[in-house]
Amino acid sequence: MDKINVLWMNNGDVKLHDYPEKGIAYHLSITTCQCMTDCRHKMDDLNTRWDAIILNAEVKILPNQIPNELDLIKVVDEVKVRNIPWFVVTSKDLKYEEILRRIVPDERIYNIKNEYDILFETIQIKVSNNPKIVAREKYGVVYKFCPDIENLLIKLEYEDIKDDVTILNECRKILEWIKNYTLFSDMDISYNIKKGFEKNGKQVVAKTYSELSLNDFSIAIGLGLSTDVPIFVKRCFYACVSTTNPGSHKTEVDATIRKGDAPYVTKTLIYELLNVLYWCASLNEKTFKL
């Protein structure tokens, strides 16, 4: 299992001692901060993934503030919407114990001195069973390359998506992201594509891939990068684009999926997209050639 990143908002009153070191045995990597403002900055940092949050019951919004029950209510409300496991620790009697027990379920409250091991084990279990974490670990290469795929991965693993037509639009957005991937968008189109190719009786001419529509891009990939793009990637990309194309064709596909007449289309579409993303993630810009 990958390390579990835990953000611990400690106001300085709880002596952490060697708790961060003890967390290693539970695959926890614990980072501390001393007020909610600092904690908020860390949570909003897109470069760091947080899997769980620990709050000191005597929270502080700013470093020099005196803890109070109103701030506790605000912080708990804010943490709830983060959609990751969160817990509250205490080390002594609170003046506002009654409020704590009213707004925080008992199963989320731990005495850090006597129950740290139970807390750490609970975090490990909760995170390990979190659909986001499961999807992230199972499809690690693709997830790291394209984090926006997360929702599709969760649906693939946990939901019945045979009639979920929203999958098409979600896949379409990822396809557009691939098209605009720097490696392609800054690349000159190979000679035979610069000459143009015929589509619906008309010539399509462009200097760079970024100038092409998504549909034309899928054609250009097949024609212009024939020596570098594996045949299965070309086919998967073209199939994804064709299935998700807007217009009368998509209307027909939507209707078919809704009626349950194509129960495997949505899963197939996601797997084809995963094939393309996995290949893209493996590219080395220095060695990639037309």
Account of the 3D structure:
The protein has 290 residues and is α/β, with parallel strands linked by helices. The chain has 15 helices and 7 strands. The protein has helices at residues 19-23, 36-43, 69-80, 97-103, 112-128, 131-138, 140-145, 150-158, 166-179, 182-185, 191-194, 214-224, 231-244, 248-259, 265-282, and strands at residues 4-9, 28-33, 52-56, 86-90, 109-111, 197-199, 202-204. The chain has a 5-stranded parallel β-sheet with strand order 2-1-3-4-5. Helix 6 (131-138) crosses helix 8 (150-158), helix 9 (166-179) runs parallel beside helix 15 (265-282) and helix 12 packs antiparallel against helix 13. Residues 185-192 and 285-290 have low confidence and may be disordered.
Helix content: 40-55%
**Helix tally?**
15
Kindly state the number of beta strands. 7
Mean pLDDT: 81
In spatial order, strands of the major sheet run: 2-1-3-4-5
Major β-sheet, in short? 5 strands, parallel
The coarse silhouette is: elongated
Spans of at least 5 consecutive residues whose pLDDT stays below 50 are 185-192, 285-290
N to C succession of SSEs: EHEHEHEHEHHHHHHHEEHHHH
Question: What's the quaternary structure here?
Answer: single chain
